[in-house]
Amino acid sequence: MRTVVCVKEVLDPDAVGAYAVSGHLEIGDDAKTLTQTTIPRLMNAYDEQAIEAALRLRDGGADTTVCAVSVGADTTATLRHAFSLGVDEVVAISPPAGVEVDCHVVAALLAAFVRDRGADLVLTGRQASDDDQGVVPALVGEALAMPVVTIARAVDVDGTKVTVTRVTPDGDEVAETELPAVVTVSSELGEPRYPNVKMKMAARKVTPEVVAPSDLSVPDGGLQPLLRLERQWVPAVAGECEILEADSAAALADLLIDRLVDDKTLQAGGGRP
Amino acid sequence: MTAPVIVCSTGTEAPEEAEATLTLGRKVAAASGTDVRWLLLGAAPDGYADVARRHGVAAVDIAGGDGIDEGDADVLVAAVARYWERSPGQVLVFAQTFSTRDIAPRVAARIGAAVVTNAVDVDAGGDAGLEVSAAAFGGDTRVLYAVTPGVACVVTLQPNAIEPTAADGTAPEPAVEKLDLDLSGVVRGVRVVEAARSDGPRLEDADVIVAGGRGLKSAENYQLVVELAALLGGMAGASRPIVDDGWIDSAHQVGLTGKITRPALYVAAGISGATQHVVGCTAAKTLVAINTDADASIFRHARYGIVGDCLEILPELIRSARDRGVRR
Ligand SMILES: Cc1cc2nc3c(=O)[nH]c(=O)nc-3n(C[C@H](O)[C@H](O)[C@H](O)COP(=O)(O)OP(=O)(O)OC[C@H]3O[C@@H](n4cnc5c(N)ncnc54)[C@H](O)[C@@H]3O)c2cc1C
Description:
The complex is a heterodimer.
Chain A lengths: L1 E5 L2 E3 L1 H9 L19 E3 L1 H15 L5 E7 L4 H10 L3 E5 L9 H15 L3 E5 L10 H8 L4 E11 L2 E8 L2 E8 L2 E5 L11 H8 L4 E3 L15 E7 L8 E2 L5 H14 L11
Parallel strand pairs in A: 1-4, 1-6, 4-5, 5-11, 6-10, 7-10
Antiparallel strand pairs in A: 2-3, 7-8, 8-9
Helix pairs in contact in A: 3-6, 4-5
Chain B lengths: L4 E5 L5 H17 L4 E6 L6 H7 L4 E5 L9 H14 L4 E5 L2 H14 L2 E10 L7 E6 L4 E7 L5 E5 L17 E5 L10 E5 L13 E5 L9 H10 L3 E4 L1 H5 L20 E5 L5 H4 L7 E6 L12 E4 L2 H15 L4
Helix pairs in contact in B: 3-4, 5-8
């Protein structure tokens, strides 16, 4: 069996958040690109969890190879990280020249890669922590006519059947489908493993295979973006917080309850019976 | 006339979110000189005709039946795609829910449209054509996408992004049609072998939420949050790290990848206010923050703030609330 994990390199969302909150997020002259070189680039954490799900399948006895694939101009660091975690194969798909790649182009490339090289199971994170769109897995599934099962806490394969425990707003749901299938993984899967030193060393020497769009059987029009990022900005937050001050925790608590009763958020009752 | 704006409700959205999508649909339709058609999948909600009239909807199309009523994703995707074949639009708007987030991109793929999730606004009719703004980086930034001219766009509208408002003046009675979409050939690829059991009240509907984060220090201290929530007649919420650490199950997680809530009162204790959390509680009418760090970003969203140790403040709040018998 062959498992393909689609991974994306993103700007560290915590660093972006810290800069945005402090009012220091730098946006380039194109009015959309985040330019701070001090913001680390890393593998989208949900994709790391998708790799973890694949490795757990293999550790659990599933006879599968694991391939990590990423679309991007320079994803070597991310793919080396994937290798250090224990995947067997790392592939970089270079974006088509002169095109501002959108989610539709990324999905077309990934789907073509899976079509050409094969996969029984396609795993990805539930969404990328930069654009938060979470649409690529569904687009890939549709392009390949594979079932799509989202937001997995656990993934199990038994023969040609995959069983997925999904985290839904109403609690866990267990769903199953036939392979080949696309499954997206959520943080509830649990901590991904850390690479050991030996694997880290080995990964440094690994060069991902580079695949060009022209090497792939992308259907006509598949490399035409449908969306163009025009602008990016930090939204204003209307802050009007009253910081309550008093001498003790008890007095602060009483003051807060006063405020909440005064502004009718809460109603005072009869007091302790 | 330009193709209409199609608003699709699946019954998984709150009524006010359905109205928000109709409000947005009306704006886009007016800007591009077209109508809104409202596609209702599954059992039509009570009072839908009134809602449609209030929002100036031109036509209501109702599709139900096997699979649709159960909310099976494969069937819903096929139903919307089939509907689009007979009645294509320029924009298809869903209220963003767990379910529509799954089906929207799949529908887009079937009908050859672009897709944008976490949308907060849509503009049309200007020189730039169709433009969608959306939240990115958990809400730390906003992005504006331009849709390629001639391409339709499927949009899921983030909860609380738009205030629902009624149309001006009186609109004519919308045409209502019950559709019979032939879905007999649809393959249901995914079997639910164990359904999620939605037991008890939902955080999304809670009027009061007391939420805790890593600042509580330990799972035992989460009881303070639970106790205060119960005392105020509300529910307990949580930030993601403490859900990940198993202090409380994920049904209580508030935020981007948890629940989007809109209570009258939200108390955030020991929560830093990362945007990914805050998107789940900024619709609260009154937000109270308790944090030892005066610079914590949660205070930017709060109405009242206490700079202090939540392990000292929460027990006092419990005492004070109990003494005075306060409730929502
Ligand atoms: C793609 C993505 C999706 C995410 N989705 C979500 C989501 O849905 N929900 C979510 O919550 N997070 C989500 N996160 C994580 C989010 O970015 C934050 O990491 C998380 O919300 C932080 O949780 P916290 O505030 O409990 O912890 P911390 O950030 O560690 O903050 C703890 C706070 O407690 C304060 N504190 C410490 N001790 C005390 C004390 N004794 N009394 C009072 N205050 C104290 C500290 O000053 C600090 O502000 C997501 C992240 C990503 C990248």
